Amino acid sequence: DIIEPGFVPGLPDQRESVSAALREPIGSPPLRDLVQKGDRVGIIVSDITRATPYGIILPEIFKELPGIPRQNITLFVATGTHRMNTDADLESMLGPGVVGSCRIVQNDCTHRPSPRLAGTTAGGNDIWLLGEFLDCDVRILTGFIEPHFFAGFSGGGKAVMPGLALLETVMRNHSAVHIDDPRSRWGITEGNPLWEDVREAAGFAHPSFLLNVCLNREKEITAVFAGDHIQAHAAGCAYVGKHAMVPVREKYD
Asked: What Å distances lie between residue 180 and 62, 140, 158, 184, CA to CA?
């Protein structure tokens, strides 16, 4: 048997689709209505290990931040426990004209003075997050959604944790107890202890807005989900679960 996800063609106008999602979000006012002149805006972006198409996404986000100069916008690179991105990485992933026009801060999960204790989850995980992001007036999460082998799906609150978290916070979330749980698997969020820890941790950062996209194997945008960080992500997960996961009649040997 050959099991593969169905192919969904890219949206005819990917930029306009992103723009429309920002103007008509799920469970939230439009992004431009959440921003006031003089606000400090923090945008979490994926690192080089993710294929999020920021050359399309970021210009549309910037358009929805009227009256906010680029010097008031900080891009926070959600490296999690990954290495720092090089200047060449940042240029290639963020698109033309972004590096140099916005301040860029990369998460260093080993740098103890940078994070701040944002809260403690029901599971007892102390959530240490990058303090500069918490200090922003408007906090935007971005990324793309795909099935994840122990978190259920990527995207959503993962931008915050593990994205901007201290190593010890990440390791408690990625613990053997969590990963060994039978509910910590592809396509499951509700009841997945690892994902629920992520969602609660992200809530401590009080995200203002989320923009997540779905991609096909050509890395084209097939759907856009924006708005409340829980509701919009849940809608995106349902879409990805339908198109990127395939049911089988029974378990294979």
From this structure: 41, 31, 19, 7
